[in-house]
Amino acid sequence: MQFKDILNTKKFIFTFELVPARSSRTLEYRKILKFLEESTKHCLFDTFSITENPGGHPSLAPFALGSEIKKLGFDPVIHFSCKDKNRNEIESELLALDGVKLRNLLVITGDYPLQGFAGKAKPVFDLDSVQLLYLITLMEKKQNIPFLKGCVVNPFKIQTNEVWLQYFKLYKKFKAGAHFVITQSGFSPQKYKELLILINKGITRTFAELFSSPELFSPEEDEKFKKIPLIGSIIFPSTAIVKLLLKTEIPGIFIGKRVLKKLESAISPIEREKKALEISAKLTAILKGLGYKGVHLCVFPLNYDKILIFMEYFFKYESLWENLLEEFDEKIVFYKNSRLLETELSFALDPEAHSPISPFYKQTPFFLFSELFHFLFFSENTPWFKVLVRFAKFVQKHSYLRRFFTSLEYFFKTRLYKCQECGDCSLYELNYNCPQSGCAKYLLNGPCGGSINGYCEVFPFEKKCLYIKAVENSFFKKNIKKLLRHGKSWLIPPRNWELNKTSSWLNFYLKKDHSGRSFR
């Protein structure tokens, strides 16, 4: 059965994530194939998903394993990331996947590249996950390709602002045409529940209330988004995985305090593994009880003896899920500078929570200066805007004036904003934070899912996430609401490299930059 049809059934589904080996010649790859062959006999899993260079390390391309899974009668899901490919290569790969009928995609930003040939690989991130989703949606319409595309959201965040930013980006992913959602992994049932509450209440209705902006409310969109299947992801807390989680080496995933305590109470490796299987089964039962469409199992053992133990636990606790909630909490633990810290996850829908429109935030003189400069020279509401447009057209016609004007612009912007001279400036949209210099992944439509307590996943506890800075530097609701980009321009198009090293000011007035073109 096609995965699309499985999502439309009423059954609670199980998907299993596979991590391809470095090569098809390895013992690990043969283990995966053996596990897949056994899966045809047990019929426990509805489909398998295949990661793409997980953790930033090079590994076997997912379509190679996907083709093997297809032969066994499953309809696999291919992880498709933005990190290693520019937009042309992305389109080529999508056409190739269509050619071999691997059309189920989990669209992700991707982990930051790590060691490869002769050192660290160059991160590409030519598109972000929202832009990629929308590109695939356009390919579906224009080329009649029946892709089934999923997206990811991470509600398991320490700061409330991080949670809201994840929900803002989820809204954009819905708008971009996501067909299903898989959450990041976590150990807090209440956070899984919050995501359900948000969608069932209505994501645009929630934003309308948050910003006191009735125009944001769209009943039609809310009803459409409620029908999108939501699958909860669970990471298997093996000893090796727990060590990585404690060191925050798996971006965006934290180990729960009660879960860790229960695992550490085991007196032997065998007992610890059974406890890990039981914990995973209990979370699965809770997800089904809450109303999730299914569960996505990550880094589980490729051993059906252990999988069957997990399923026995699940059937045991399936009807008792409400009694299991107290076994988990919102407290997480992780190491920072060799110290084990304990903190709580935040809730965006908690009225007591520190929301992104809190009056405690201060507008810095730098932010106010930037706002004033933008209003004076780049607002179409000023009476002299048409004069500035005519001046820009005059400068553009004379090469010596154009070069001088460009040099003058970047003399100031490189010093004030660490400008990278992209010629397609989005400083205003991100509250005067440059994504080309301030975001390790150059993201334009929201943060990735790997931030740690407001810090960038690539520079943990050293560099603030650009989007957190964009929120914290802004007091007025309208400045936060900009991140939603409500209306016709809900998505910031990808950077136009034709404009690189040209004047972004001239490009703005001449409607060459993203504000003057559409991504359709």
Number of domains: 2
Tally of DSSP helical segments = 21
Shape, please? globular
Q: Quick one: how many beta strands?
A: 13
How would a crystallographer describe the biggest sheet? 8 strands, parallel, barrel
Strand order of the largest sheet: 1-2-3-4-7-8-9-11
Judging by the overall fold, what is the CATH architecture of the largest domain? Alpha-Beta Barrel
User: What proportion of the residues is helical, as a percent range?
Assistant: 40-55%
Instruction: Report the structural category.
Output: alpha/beta
- Name of the top-level CATH class of the largest domain: Alpha Beta
Contiguous uncertain segments of 5+ residues:
none
Mean of the pLDDT scores? Answer: 92
